[in-house]
């Protein structure tokens, strides 16, 4: 049974909406101390031996939060909050901080560069969502949505790779220093699932745009050619009939 453009467009729109929902949950993680935003974070570390630090600390894109009863308790939000344990934005000390974090800007810059790429992924993703409504009924809407979804996918992959690299390295350094650290399962599961959703959305949109293109174009040209030659040959046929004895 052939699949219609409307069905493929709706599938692309469904995966687009799913990707955006997951991305927004991670993007807003830690903004409010309410479920589910207070359960989404990138890294949790036992920091009780660091002066001035809470017993457990969690990093998000907005702040460094303490942990109470398994939930994040965050203060004021700061966009593009860096992952830089010895820096003044984090603990502002080098005491009991793993040596790999000291004297380098690698973690500071990598964590902060992920923010603008995430903004770009959300920007193109939201536009792709609105154009995806046109993908259910028009070919140009399908291809436009596919283009925007591909751009969102590229930025989403860059963002996800950056935060995965920097926080996996951070987890390993803290564990090597005797401070128990673990990644935020929800945040990374959501981000990588969003990558898969964008890939599926791109495929659905492209398939929707290609449906019927070859058949309808060929049939139309065939009819136009038949009409032209039939009209050109008709007078000559009539003249032969008149000459015949």
From TrEMBL:
The record's listing under Pfam families reads: SUR7
Q: Enumerate the UniProt keywords alphabetically.
A: Membrane, Transmembrane, Transmembrane helix
The membrane spanning regions, by residue number, are 7-27, 113-135, 147-168, 188-207
Q: Does this UniProt record's set of keywords contain Membrane?
A: yes
Q: Does this entry carry the keyword Transport?
A: no
The protein's name in its UniProt record: SUR7/PalI family-domain-containing protein
**Organism of origin:** Aspergillus cavernicola
